[in-house]
């Protein structure tokens, strides 16, 4: 039985849409990361510094060279997300259970990380403590100047976004459960076909029947009766 979300939309369509969006965004992010890494290795950062001032160029180049490892890690992560999202996209088309399962596990993992980030943002919004970061021996601190109304609005926005992400995770999980149920049904039907007029899907329509036991000479009534 096909499952739905938003009352009438099949979960398969939801997985198709979400996986495509995830694949597109992750591919763009990974492509940008690998492009910047290529410019760093080839000493061609000047190609993307046209609209920067001299001070901005210096800071940008120093930061990119210093944190080149972060660019590599980020590019690898987004490449992995794009790959798994592609599996989910293809899986929704061909109804492949393993591909959809891999995509479902990835979305759950991303949701957990996003929940931690949302919790930190809410703590930062409602906390009155200053956040300080030390860079090259220089400490830089920022204070929270949000009003109560702004904090409430920010909190509502974070909660709504969190609920949407949870709903997406649930939709993808529903489709995986649907594929599992379809697989179990096909397996049970092949083993135990029931009902008049039904037949085994993998058997021919003209299945061989056992001979009638009284059709041979030893059991039939003949002239010796």
Provide structural commentary.
- There is one protein chain.
- The protein has 225 residues and is mostly helical.
- 64% of the residues lie in helices and 6% in strands.
- It has five helices and four strands.
- The strands form two sheets. A two-stranded antiparallel sheet has the order 1-2. Strands 3-4 form a two-stranded antiparallel sheet.
- It is flat.
- The two termini are 60 Å apart.
- The model is unreliable at 196-207 (pLDDT under 50).
- Keywords: Membrane, Transmembrane, Transmembrane helix.
Notable characteristics:
about 220 residues; mainly alpha; two-stranded antiparallel ribbon; two-stranded antiparallel sheet; 5 helices; transmembrane helix; Tetraspannin-domain-containing protein; transmembrane
Broad shape: flat
Structural class based on helices, strands and sheet pairing:
mainly alpha
What is the string of SSEs from the N terminus onward?
EEHHHHEEH
User: How many structural domains can be distinguished in the coordinates?
Assistant: 1
Oligomeric state as shown:
single chain
Strand content: 5-15%
Q: How many helices in DSSP terms?
A: 5
Alpha-carbon distance between the termini? 60 Å
Proportion of helical residues: 55-70%
Low-confidence stretches: 196-207
Biggest sheet architecture: 2 strands, antiparallel
Strands, total number? 4
Radius of gyration computed on alpha carbons: 31 Å
Mean pLDDT: 79
**Spatial sequence of strands, sheet with the most strands:** 1-2
């Amino acid at each position: 039985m096909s499952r739905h979300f938003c009352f009438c939309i099949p979960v398969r369509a939801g997985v198709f849409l979400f996986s495509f969006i995830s694949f597109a965004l992750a591919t763009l992010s990974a492509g940008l990361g690998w492009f910047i890494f290529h410019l760093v290795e080839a000493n061609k950062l000047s190609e993307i510094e046209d609209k920067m001032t001299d001070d901005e160029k210096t800071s940008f180049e120093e930061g990119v060279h210093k944190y080149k490892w972060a660019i590599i890690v980020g590019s690898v992560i987004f490449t992995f997300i794009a790959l798994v999202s592609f599996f989910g996209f293809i899986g929704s088309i061909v109804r492949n259970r393993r591909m959809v399962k891999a995509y479902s596990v990835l979305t759950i993992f991303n949701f957990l990380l996003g929940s931690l980030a949302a919790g930190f943002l809410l703590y930062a919004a409602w906390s009155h403590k200053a956040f300080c970061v030390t860079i090259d021996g220089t400490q830089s601190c920022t204070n929270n100047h949000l009003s109560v109304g702004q904090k409430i609005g920010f909190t509502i926005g974070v909660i709504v976004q969190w609920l949407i992400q949870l709903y997406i995770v649930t939709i993808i999980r529903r489709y995986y459960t649907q594929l599992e149920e379809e697989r179990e049904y096909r397996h049970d039907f092949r083993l135990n076909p029931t009902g008049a007029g039904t037949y085994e899907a993998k058997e021919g329509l003209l299945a061989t029947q056992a001979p009638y036991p009284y059709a041979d000479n030893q059991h039939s009534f003949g002239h010796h009766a």
